[in-house]
Automatic annotation (TrEMBL):
UniProt entry tagged with the keyword Nucleotidyltransferase: yes
GO molecular function, one term: RNA-directed DNA polymerase activity
Family the UniProt entry places it in: Belongs to the beta type-B retroviral polymerase family. HERV class-II K(HML-2) pol subfamily.
Keyword Nuclease attributed: yes
EC numbers, comma separated: 3.1.26.4
UniProt-listed Gene3D superfamilies: 3.30.70.270, HIV Type 1 Reverse Transcriptase, subunit A, domain 1
Swiss-Prot/TrEMBL keywords: Endonuclease, Hydrolase, Nuclease, Nucleotidyltransferase, RNA-directed DNA polymerase, Transferase
Domain Reverse transcriptase: 1-105
Pfam families in alphabetical order: RVT_1, RVT_thumb
Species name: Chaetura pelagica
The protein, known as: ribonuclease H
């Protein structure tokens, strides 16, 4: 994710910043990313209205009946590059099954990726991964926001991914109930 910060009264060139990971604690960073990627994809969406181009943050899904994969990928890569974004070649999926936002998509079905509930939580990053994995399937498994609340409370206000965390009795009960539903 890249962005520029203009100087006061244009006294000097704008400073350009690039994040590999969105900063934690900056409330608008997901929105900024979403808007920026939408802006970068707009020319491709207008050029190919017959295709479904869906994106969430940095995940992009392109689908259509007569999809010319090589052509659209080349155009997409070029448009994104012109706007300062790039696609990591190892992230491009051209064959079924496709993995997108916690789902496995084939020619005939869409199903959630297997969620492995890991209760071995040692750091804030472990909690973030755990809550993130549960978020993808919570609606289809009937997990209410209240069921996640004890785990979300562990996220707190810390911004250090390696900060030590552990599951207390309340979080372990919540995780046990969530595991049963999954």
């Amino acid at each position: 994710f890249a962005f520029s910060v203009p100087s006061v009264n244009k006294a000097e060139p704008a400073k350009r910043y690039h994040w590999v990971v969105l900063p934690k604690g900056m409330k608008s960073s997901p929105t900024m990313c979403q808007v920026f990627v939408a802006w970068a994809l707009e020319p491709v969406c207008k050029r190919y209205p017959q295709l479904i181009i869906s994106h969430y943050m940095d995940d992009i899904l392109i689908a259509g009946e007569k999809l010319q994969k090589e052509t659209i990928l080349q155009i997409l890569t070029s448009e994104l590059k012109q706007r300062g974004l790039q696609i990591a070649p190892e992230k491009i999926q051209q064959q079924s099954p496709w993995k997108y936002l916690g789902w496995i998509i084939t020619g005939s079905s869409i199903k959630p990726q297997k969620v492995e509930v890991k209760s071995d939580v040692k750091t804030l990053n472990d909690v973030q991964k755990l809550v993130g994995d549960i978020q993808w399937v919570r609606k289809i498994c009937g997990i209410a926001n209240d069921g996640l609340k004890p785990l979300i409370q562990l996220l707190g206000t810390s911004i250090q991914a390696n900060e030590k965390q552990s599951l207390g009795p309340e979080q372990q009960r919540a995780l046990s109930q969530i595991s049963e539903k999954i």
